[in-house]
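hey can u check if this looks right to u? its 607 residues, i copy pasted from the old doc so theres a chance i mangled smth
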Amino acid sequence: MARTLLPGRPGSQARLRRPAELAAGLTAIGVTVVLAGCATVPTTTTPQSVTAAGDQVQEYVQPLPPPGPTSSWSPRDVVLGFLHASASYAFDPEAARRYLTPGLRKSWNPGPVTIVNSPRNPVTLRITQAETQPQPGPAGTLREVSFTGQRVATLSQTGQYQYSRGSYNYEFLLEQLNGTWLIADLPQGQHNLRLLTQSDFEHVYQPRNLFFYATTSGFAPTGELVPDPVYAPVQSSNSALNTNVAEGLVRGLLRDQGSWLTGATKTAFPAGTTLLGIRITGKTAIVNLGGTAAKARGGAWQSMAEQLQATLGSQAYAPPLAQNVVLQINGTTQWSGVPRDLVYAVRPGQLYYLNGDGTVGAQQRSPTLDLAGETVTAVAAPPPAADLPEVAAAVDSGDGCALQISGRPPHSYQLTTSGGPCTSLSWDGNGNLWAVADGRIWVVLRAHSKSPESVSAPANVPADGRSQPPDVLSLRMAPDGVRAALLVKDGASRHVMLAAVSYHGATASFGPAVDTGPADPTALAWYTPYDLLVLTASGIMEVPMTGGAGQLVGTVPAGAVSIATDGSVVAVGAILGPDQSEIYTSTNLGTSWSSRPLAGALPAYPG
């Protein structure tokens, strides 16, 4: 899901997920990672969190490409060494080319990255001369090395990380020249193929965020910034002040090459802005811009500086590169001030739920909606920042579903008249109410509409094979009103996808969706602007927006089917029997749960 392929070098990482070590069998190959402070590096195969103490910098030593190949290397060693050397391509592009025959060196033009797990059971097979194309040279002998495993993801030329599940079988053709095995042809003749193992990828790419302004219609909060995850490859061998990473991030802001957020966000930097230089002194980044930025004035410069401040000061996945920003235009300081927090966060609030008597309300408050006798299928609590007291509930109307919204007077909308019930409701920070009914998406736009409007699902959301349009099971809007997390059904499996909403007057539309998260989720909720909590059969997964697989953070009570959080407390709804349901809460992400659960169902926090 990352947007831009960025040059740079890793700095300190407070929440870096790191995988297992490289697979056994990489002959004479080593990776050195030095972590200062109190950080620990897990060695399990499940991605984990690494927490650093305070602002202490974690120094990363550039992973060295393997010193080969040599005449003592087997064809198997050469292939595995080539994969590892490919991880250092941004830093040393010739390291990987040394594994190729002279002809292939000229034609190899590495393109998007394919990320795979560590190869399983590499085998060497003898290939006869008659079976090979092209024919070997007079001194050459051919071998074919193949390995199988699981494909993890792809990373586009602009750095967009997307899951690409499924098995793989790659076959390399090797030729012996002057006593040394070299790769003569890549799998399926793909001369732009660049493969990285999951462990190599995590060692040489660093997760960061770019920040862009939301383009939601006139009812959006002023100056709201939306995080867009990026990956910065290790590229510099010496950058004590992290200026290489910072430079790459700033160039990413200026290019704005596009991602799944394209159309839903915008940049304050005018096209033609150039980066003249960047220095980091202490905790302050001095960014010098030129080009068309010189034609802007105070308000525009401040907007640019706030984008820079949020990007360089972000600590969502790593400690900040700088805490303050000074913006210079052609060497003259134009903006320096106290940074503002313009990221719309998940905010604490009251827990709402369906009581056993059919009323909907918050703890320690009078019921807000009386739906006694109705079959309630979803509940949405209002976002506190929208200053809307309304609580929404979806009820089974017999021939579809209807929305009931509290207020003076209360509102009632018939959403569908045929098909299945409403399966989810979600307010966004702008006061828009989103619903999923019978696999379709609906929205009530606060500023432009008094009735629900149908919104087409992202075009690339898969159908379940039995119904059209695609089968969306639930939708959770981020508080920023731009990003949506979708739980979709694809055949017999479920998975999480992310999409961005663009607003055009009185209408809304989704851009393309990207796949993320663990397999077969049950429910989801926004935990922070940068992470989701996903309920699975194994427990609660915390899934970052970077496209990482996430980590298991807690267990869940028996019968858990729904999840909600306000960024501090997590609540799950559990069905224990035909007429028995309970709500459990946890303040530690499911490490332990309340000993006295609430009698109720469908927990919902504001948003």
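Residues 298-313 form the longest helix (16 residues).
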